[in-house]
Amino acid sequence: MKVALILGVTGQDGAYLAHLLLGKGYRVVGTSRDAQMANTSRLERLGIRQGVEIVSLAPNDFRSVLKVVSGVAPEEIYNLAGQTSVGLSFEQPVECMESIAGGTLNLLEVIRYLGAPVRLFNAGSSECFGDTGRIPANEDTPFHPRSPYAVAKATAYWQVANYREAYGLFACTGILANHESPLRPSRFVTQKIIQGVQAIAEGNQDKLVLGNLDIWRDWGWAPDYVEAMHRMLQAEQPMDYLIASGKTNSLRELVAAACRVAGVNTEERVEASNDLLRPADLTYSEIDPSLIEQKLGWVSTHTLEEIILKMYNGILF
Q1: What is the spatial distance between Cα 173 and Cα 159, in angstroms, rounded to a whole number?
Q2: Cα–Cα distance between 185 and 167 in angstroms, integer?
Q3: Helix 189-201 vs helix 251-262: angle between axes, to the nearest 10 degrees?
Q4: How far apart are the first and last CA of the chain?
Q5: What is the per-residue pLDDT across 160-214, written as a single tens digit (0 to 9) for each?
Q6: I need a surface site. Which of 30, 56, 145, 224 has the fewest CB within 10 A?
Q7: Model-level pTM?
Q8: pLDDT of 38-77, one tens digit each?
Q9: Active-site positions?
Q10: Which CATH code, of 3.30.110.10, 3.40.50.620, 3.40.980.10, 3.40.50.720, is assigned to 3-180+221-245+287-301?
Q11: CA distances from 29 to 3, 13, 56 (A)
């Protein structure tokens, strides 16, 4: 039985990944800063809470990471922990850098120190590229991060690359584009939109107020993306890959799709507010995931409309 350690197991990606690995016969150990106080609601929604062992781990505490990794002795580690919100990173930039870059560095150092044959997946972000314009970013595109979150993710990416090249670790980063599901927290704009149009349709809310509607992103389906994470650690050699759908849509289009599903009039019910704008944002993000398709045979399988419909109806898979 393979053993997998998932940092951030209680989040959207962690829960879906745990479900995938349990189905493949893994022993799954997940971490939370305080195991006794962990919010396991997503694991419960997927029906896997009893199958996941949860232990306490503070990613920015080297001793804590060393204790857990040496005690669990996993073959695979998935680093999905750390701050996940671009918007929140502007309010808490120090915590963002410490939880993402500091936590990743501790993992790498522990693996190097123990000399164990551990394979590490690190969750990166397409936010690192900044505004790509109409030229799709690929694995060779330079980073131009425009938020504390993206800066922290870029730092962690180069840490992983450095330890792979300097010490021969099997460590790789999946540079993830936006990916959604009903397990998304409500602070994420996609979930805010879904919950907003539902409330309007039910007569419990008058307007949906958002920030900049003229941003373009690549949105995918989270259960697809955790399959890509797993495939990356089964490869013969560690490589960094872009994980994305390869299709770019505007937030305005996403809102319109959600309104259609809910039967809500977009023009009457949706407003943009300057109060919700970020200090800096990227306008256009286009991603080319062809390398992971060529090397590992992975492709994103859901359209934006399908994702919106599933989120609106709470369909988990």
Answers
A1: 10
A2: 37
A3: 30
A4: 25
A5: 999 999 999 999 999 999 999 999 999 899 999 999 999 999 999 999 999 999 9
A6: 56
A7: 0.96
A8: 999 999 999 999 999 999 999 999 999 999 999 999 999 9
A9: 125, 127, 149
A10: 3.40.50.720
A11: 8, 14, 10
